[in-house]
Sequence to fold (309 residues):
Amino acid sequence: MSVLIVKPMATHILITGGSGLIGRHLTEELLANGYHVSHLSRKASSDKRITTYLWNVEKGTIDPACIAEIDVIVHLAGSGIADKHWTPEHKKNLIESRTKSIRMIYDLLRKSPHHVKSVISASGTGYYSDRGDEILNEHSPPAQDFFAECCIEWEKAVDEGKALGLRVVKFRTGVVLTPDGGALPKLAQPIKLGLGTPLGNGKQWVSWIHLKDAISIYMLAIEENNLNGVFNMVAPEPVTNKQLTKAIAAQLRRPLWLPPVPAILLKLIFGEMSVVVLGSTRVSSSKIEAAGFKFKYPVVAEALEEIYG
Fold:
């Protein structure tokens, strides 16, 4: 006689950064699958399907009720890495919006009864930063610039949850392809106007992932309790900036006739932040695939066809 083993499943998920690009879509996927979703936010939401708790990271205030009945915390909060120039003040904000925020939650968990079992956090492939043609896996050492420093401090803060007995999962996320925000609309806009062109020499590697695959990976981490540690969240086939530009132009049926934008011009305009578009990061997806994840959009042409088709 066979015995049916039912795997225990988390039912109540708390998301920080729930109004962001990943957070919005992950929330919809969780709700569609019967989960109860709460957000930690600076302001109340009008969405009655979601319980919203208020916090202010800068002021260090948080509603202690936010951890009640929570099984899993998904930490997505953090200021946009390319939203403004990397002034000393903004660099401090980029790091603290990621690190101080999760530490506030951990402080609450230390002081209050709870049954949180797991923390799943975003990180970024900026951990590796500009590495040329080197193929990078989760054991590759970090770079030594600010882009990497931000990710290192982010992951270090999240790892403090291990001392609380939590399962900790971190996803070093590449360029998320979606028309709803992020890098793709910014890349596509000049191409739509017939002004598209590669950036710099166009040879820098771009490690990307379709939004739907990114959301599916978060769902895998929520549902599979044996998933642990750090994983690269990128598609199996990275492309160069030139290849990505050509693939977008092909989907939009627009010509590419302008010469590449010189790297020196981008450095003059963006300064240190130019590494976001000029850095070459060729990242492997082998570990998440070995954990059983199957990509729906492994090839950039297929991903863009789904987006624009």
Observations:
- The domain at 12-308 is CATH 3.40.50.720 (Rossmann fold).
- The radius of gyration is 20 Å.
- Residues 88-111 form the longest helix (24 residues).
